Amino acid sequence: MDADEFAKKLLEAFTIEAGEHVETITKGVIELEKTPAGGRLKELIESTFRAAHSLKGAAHAVNRPDVESVCQVLEGVFAMWKRQPEPVSADDCDVLSAAIDVVGSQLADAAFSKSPAGRQAAREIIARLRAIESGHAPHTAVPPATPATPPSAPAPPPHEHAEAERATIAETVRVPVAKMNSLLRKAEGMIGVKLATRRYAVELRTVGMLVDTWRAEWGRTRDEAGGKDGHTSGSAELLTAFIDWNRDFMQGVEDRLTALTKAIEADERGVSTAVDDLLADAKELLLLPFTILLDIFPKQIRDLAREQGKEIALVIEGREVQIDKRILDEMKDALIHLVRNAIDHGIEKPDARTARGKSRGGTLTIAVSRREGNRIAIDVSDNGAGISVEKVKAAAIRQGAISVEDAAAMGNEEALQLIFQSGVTTSAIITEISGRGLGMAIVREKVERLGGHIAIESQPGAGTTFHILLPVTLATFKGLVVTAAAQTFVIPTSGIEQIARVKRDAIRTVENRPTLILNDRVISLVLLSDVLELPPTSAQQESAVVEIVVLGVAEKRVAFIVDEVLTEQELLVKPLTRPLVRVRNVASAAVLGAGTPVLVLNSADLLKSAAKISGAGLGAYATAGAEKEKAPKRTVLVADDSVTSRMLLKNILEAAGYLVTTAVDGVEAFGALQRGKFDILVTDGEMPRMGGFELTAKIRADRRFGELPVVIVTALGSAADRDRGIEAGANAYIVKSTFDQNNLIDIMRKLIA
Amino acid sequence: MDTDTQHMTDPVTEREILKARALELAREPADKTAADTLEVVEFELSGERYAFELAQVCEVCALRELTPVPCTPDFLTGIVNLRGEILAVIDLRKFFGLPSAGITQLNQIIIIEDSRTRLGILVDSVERSLTILPGSLQPALPTHTDVRADYLRGITGDRLAVLDAAKILSHPRIIVEDRDDT
Asked: Is the omega angle on the peptide bond into residue B172 within 30 degrees of 0, that is, cis?
């Protein structure tokens, strides 16, 4: 080993060791703040002191005077407390916490210490630590401008700060020797496979040679028996002799082949278990307990809470749950973001909480649990202010993500999902750590790229919970294997709401978009091949039944028509690499059975792309469906003076399976009612000649239609108008600005069940 | 003086230095030839002869199963599974913007990489590796106004177009990065 290599190894070892010491110190400081005088306090001071001391020594050994000098003062502070143990104040803990941040930055990047900012940070923190040591007078000794904001004042820029955090998850994995031994044994088992393969190859070559022998023998016999004139006297004997030989010979070949087949079949079972076993063991090497990730939170939450003057208790459940290291690494930033959001926007200040009749301190819970199907659930919840749907909508409108009309028509559940869109933030002021509105979009992308799923639940005034569902190992996720445009694709099961086979004649065009009624809800429909910009296959155009995969949640659901749903299976994720940095609609690749690569689609992208295409390719479906009317249908009379409204209502109702007749005003509608038989009337409020209210009153007064259900759909939204409608005898009153087609259909179903 | 005594008293260091010197001496003639010649891998694509510098080629393998990737530029033919790793494969003719020239085999992949990007190049056949004199390379003809000229190291006397793999790998056009900004 040359000197350079040795130095490198030494540094690597130092990095790991330093990480462990920093962790011990961090945990110690968090605990210290909460610990009253007593034996426990002494113990804590002692263990933290020792970690600071060891880190100082290690830093000296690898020639890092920067780290060493901070640790030396840190050690001094703990040494003082060792001599006279007394509870540590929150202010002192601020300083200690800031010191840990500085050491963290120094460790993450040696260049930091050489930069002016780094030198300044070290000088300041040493001064503040000395102040504690020299007289227990941190209030006077601390620079007055920055008493309670340790991370922002002397600390490194945010980027480097993040680097320091990343370094706390060690890049090495500790594996119990027993596990390694078992793995080695299993790997050795593979030697048997290698030898067996060689044996089979030899055996097969032998059989091949036997076949050659047979061919040569047959050729000779044919030549001799056939002769020149074809009737040599000995030909019959020759042939008989060949046939006898042939029988025995082929019997021999057959026996060999049978034996070989048996051996291979027996092996096949053994080998497939052995390989699966080996793979499972190897994957297990990468499983780490969550605690490695969760341990960074107590300090972070403490610091943020202090900074914002909030009181926050952290509850962590399920530290011991194991998950793939690669997923842990990927999820780190996302979880940090969720936690910061909860503190920033979720949990209120103590006074605000008391005013609302809540406890002064908020609680932030991170609960990790194992779920069936090799999945892990992470719930991040706070009992803070919750998310105001109205604010989210307003922010989305401001960002241009939705229109005012969209917002009005949007249900609460759907509106909450908007926070996952980039640019939507509800925080009134943009703070340093959150409020830029990009975070949640990135969190969702991260989760989904890992084959997971994220959902939000929020009660105004009571708190917010994010539910994250992740696969245990990166390698396995469940996916639905489908074909579209004659190519195979995988759609992650986590994003799928439903799979169904629907009759083609159930497809209708609404607002120029093909739609479908599924579970009493209207959802729009696209060809997966269209979304993927591939030519559709003719099979799709012809079959009477189509297979659909429904993605998305609530009102954002879209049904994708596929050629065929093949199967659902566990798949190995293979990331796409540069030059394929990010491909529209594609999340990653996976490998099917015999090593064929297949693309894993990105559900979120598919929904976005589906919204952009017109669905024109589906024209054939809708018209084919419209021609086939059969079962007796409920009849609806629609009265509206606006052509657009009339058409819209007609389409929605036809898509829902009603037979629709239209009228342009109350007078025409009343005429139609007298001529035909209708099950229900849907009318506009304001129309020329006779409006909806008048029409309703007239119907109620007429015995012939006394029972006819009437739905008024109107632009008039005031309570007085509503009362007027009810007074006139309407059964339902829908305001156009909040119009939701599903709502209309629900109401109609109730009225004419 | 000080350093001299150190050399005398430290046989390990001394031996290291001698060894390094010996190696350097031994290598000198080899260095000379390497500077004067260029080893290249010649391949055929639509009846035209191209080559990559051998040092820029990681591996050559047969094309087995190729999966097209939707929503990518047309030169990106698809992805292949190379011993468990997913590799993007491109069609140089389309990347160069050359008209498609009839039926081709495209049954071998030349894999090139730099520190960031790894890429498979589809070719009809890999002919051989050969040594050429870099001095004999002519710049692209002025008539060569097509995209190819950007990626060309030069053309040999017998019309073998030597491509620069590094230029292909580092060209922004090769990167598929579809950020959704809307």
From this structure: no
Measured between alpha carbons, how far is A518 from A115 in angstroms, rounded to an integer? Answer: 63
Q: Scan for tokens 């300083």, then name that residue.
A: A95
Evaluate whether A409 touches A738 at the Cβ level (below 8 Å).
yes
Measured in angstroms, the CA of B138 and the nearest CA of chain A are apart by 30
Q: Which residue of B has its CA nearest to A598?
A: B67
Cα distance between residue A286 and residue A355, in whole Å? 48
Alpha helices, H only, A365-481: 389-399, 404-409, 412-417, 439-449
CB crowding A616-638: b at 16 or more within 10 Å, else e: ebbebbbeebeeeeeeeebebbb
Work out the pLDDT band at A260, boundaries 50, 70, 90: very high
Q: What is the pLDDT at residue A258? A: 92
DSSP letters, A110-130, are HHHHHSHHHHHHHHHHHHHHH
Q: Which residues of chain A neighbour B176 with C-beta distances below 8 Å?
A: 579-583
B55: in domain: yes
One domain for residues B119 and B31: no
Contact B84 A578 (CB under 8 A): no
Q: Which two tokens stand for residue A648?
A: 């819209």
* CA A183 to mean position of chain CA atoms: 32
Task: Please tell me chain A's helix, strand, coil percentages from 3-state DSSP, rounded to the nearest 5.
Answer: 55, 20, 25
3-state secondary structure of A545: strand
Task: Judge whether A605 and A514 are in contact, CB under 8 Å.
Answer: no
Determine phi and psi for A600, rounding to 5 degrees. Answer: -100, 125
pLDDT at A543 over 80: no
Total number of domains constituting chain B: 2
Segment A292-320, tens digit of pLDDT: 788 888 888 888 888 888 888 889 898 88
**Count of CB pairs separated by less than 8 Å, A with B:** 83
pLDDT at B99: 66
What would the pLDDT profile of A261-290 be if each residue is shown by its tens digit?
998 988 888 888 888 888 888 877 878 888
Q: A126 is written with which tokens?
A: 């040493």
Helix (H, G, I), strand (E, B) or coil at A294: helix
CA distance A314 to A299: 10
Enter the DSSP assignment of B137: P
- Going by the DSSP 8-state scheme, the letter that residue A41 receives in this structure is H
The string over B78-87, giving b where at least 16 C-beta atoms fall within 10 Å of a residue's C-beta and e elsewhere, is bbbbbeeebb
- Is B56 found in the same domain as B29? no
**Pairwise CB contact (< 8 Å): A596 & B67:** yes
- Interface of A to B at Cβ within 8 Å reads 485, 487, 532-534, 574-586, 589, 591, 595-599, 605, 608
Spatial neighbors of B18 by CB under 8 A, at least 6 apart, are none
Predicted local distance difference test score (pLDDT) of residue A374: 75
CATH number listed for the domain at residues A289-471: 3.30.565.10
Kindly list the domain boundaries of chain A, sorted by start residue.
3-166, 181-285, 289-471, 476-626, 631-751
Share of chain A above pLDDT 90, in %: 8
Q: Determine which of A402, A577, A581, A613 to mutate to test the interface with B (most B C-beta atoms within 10 Å).
A: A577
The token pair at A483 is 């074909």
For the cut 70, the answer to whether the pLDDT of residue A20 exceeds it is yes
Residues B108, B25 share a domain: no
Residues contacting residue A750 through CB under 8 Å, at least 6 positions apart = none
**How does the average pLDDT of chain A come out, rounded?**
79
Task: Test B177 with A581 for CB contact under 8 angstroms.
Answer: yes
Q: Is the pLDDT of residue A714 over 60?
A: yes
Half-sphere exposure of B50 (CA within 13 A, CB side): 23
Domain A476-626 has CATH 2.40.50.180: yes
Task: State the best of B76, B79, B89, B175 to mutate against chain A, taking most chain A CBs within 10 Å.
Answer: B79
Q: Would you identify the CATH topology of the domain A631-751?
A: Rossmann fold (3.40.50)
Instruction: Report CB contact under 8 Å: B69, A578.
Output: no
